TrEMBL record:
Reaction equations catalysed: D-fructose 6-phosphate + L-glutamine = D-glucosamine 6-phosphate + L-glutamate
Its biological purpose: Catalyzes the first step in hexosamine metabolism, converting fructose-6P into glucosamine-6P using glutamine as a nitrogen source.
Organism: Thiolapillus brandeum
Protein's UniProt name: Glutamine--fructose-6-phosphate aminotransferase [isomerizing]
Segment of the intact protein contained: 246 to 608 of 608
Entry keywords, A to Z: Aminotransferase, Cytoplasm, Glutamine amidotransferase, Repeat, Transferase
């Protein structure tokens, strides 16, 4: 039932504050991580974990790429790879490595095959971040950390992605404890997670402005998404959403790579979309965007109240009350809405894009 919404995708985008809160339920309380909720077996595995290999496909892979920044921030080496490549490589598995898969459906063929193939490679064990309790990946993994996004019907994954990031954040905090962070050190991060549903509500309030912005895309054939740091995988996710539902060719690039090639594509017909959070790389991104403007590229920016943008021409929307540890999750929402509205204007089948299936159970 779509309720008042025209499409499942829009309904699922708007469900995000609720399902994020659901995913946190019983796992954090009053600034504390309730580790007991992970179960004994998971905690034992985490006690021995020194590094992490994350394997997934598509949107779930992007969640893994964001988590890599988070794990590395607390001193845990982390490798992330798409399942279809990982399966056919001879991975070197250092001692104390946890094998982590991320999958909404728990049935993705390549991810499942990667898990099966990992069994005799010397991993400590396997953990799956999954949304479907009775799925194959949950059954075959040693332990599971469930997202509670509820059934996702739109083929383009939205609420599954943001709840995956929330689950991964919980995992990062559990590992942070093991890396010597005290409860006091973690309190701020846990509060940031706690306030995430409220922050997402604020972004959802920008829906109509994003719809306005989307009008500039209706005649575009290409789009470039830029980002740096954890916002690079968010740019990848924004580009994937746009291409799969609006059929506009979209590419994501780390902003610093622009002048190593893709800048040649930029002219007045090229929309460039970028999340501009207030983070240590801000000045670098701004100077990358200056290069886009110098070639007449059209800028569409999502930014933070605290950021001063000094560029000669751009469209922007300002987000407020953003916290660094959860910012990638918050900044995902406007990109989902942008893709949705562009698709709506183009008249494509939003919930059931051509050539795609919700669960990819063949290789
Ligand atoms: C994109 C999308 C796909 C899936 C991918 C993995 O919007 O939904 O890229 O993320 O097929 O699926 P799961 O997470 O079920 O393993």
């Amino acid at each position: 039932d779509k309720g008042p919404y025209q499409h499942y995708m829009l309904k699922e985008i708007f469900e995000q504050p609720g399902v994020v809160a659901e995913t946190l339920e019983g796992r954090i309380y009053k600034g504390r991580l309730l580790e007991e909720s992970f179960g004994y077996e998971t905690r034992e595995l985490l006690d021995q974990t020194r590094q992490i290999h994350i394997i997934a496909c598509g949107t779930s892979y992007h969640a893994g790429l964001v988590a890599r920044y988070w794990f590395e921030d607390i001193g845990i080496p982390c490798m992330v790879e798409v399942a279809s490549e990982y399966r056919y490589r001879h991975t070197v598995v250092p001692e104390g490595t946890l094998f982590v898969t991320i999958t909404q459906s728990g049935e993705t063929a390549d991810t499942l095959a990667a898990l099966r193939g990992a069994k005799d490679k010397g991993y400590l064990g396997s953990l799956v971040v999954c949304n479907v309790p009775e799925s194959s990946l949950v059954r075959e993994s040693d332990v599971a950390l469930m997202t509670r996004a509820g059934t996702e019907i739109g083929v383009a994954s939205t609420k599954a992605f943001t709840t995956q990031l929330v689950a991964l954040r919980l995992l990062v905090l559990a590992m942070a404890k093991r890396m010597g962070y005290t409860e006091d050190d973690l309190r701020g991060y846990i509060e940031e997670l706690h306030s995430l549903p409220r922050q997402m509500e604020v972004v959802l309030g920008l829906n109509e402005s994003i719809e306005q912005m989307a009008r500039s895309f209706s005649d575009k054939e290409h789009a470039l998404f830029l980002g740096r740091g954890p916002f690079y995988p968010i740019a990848m996710e924004g580009a994937l959403k746009l291409k799969e539902i609006s059929y506009i060719h979209a590419e994501a690039y780390p902003a610093g790579e622009l002048k190593h090639g893709p800048l040649a594509l930029v002219d007045e017909k090229m929309p460039v979309i970028c999340a501009l959070p207030n983070d240590p790389l801000l000045d670098k991104v701004l100077s990358n965007l200056q290069e886009v403007r110098a070639r007449d590229g059209e800028l569409f920016l999502f930014s933070d109240q605290e950021v001063k943008i000094e560029l000669d021409k751009y469209q922007s929307l300002t987000l407020s009350d953003i916290h660094p540890s959860t910012a990638p999750i918050v900044y995902t929402v406007p990109l989902q809405l942008l893709a949705y509205h562009v698709a709506l204007i183009k008249g494509t089948d939003v919930d059931q894009p051509r050539n795609l299936a919700k669960s990819v159970t063949v290789e």
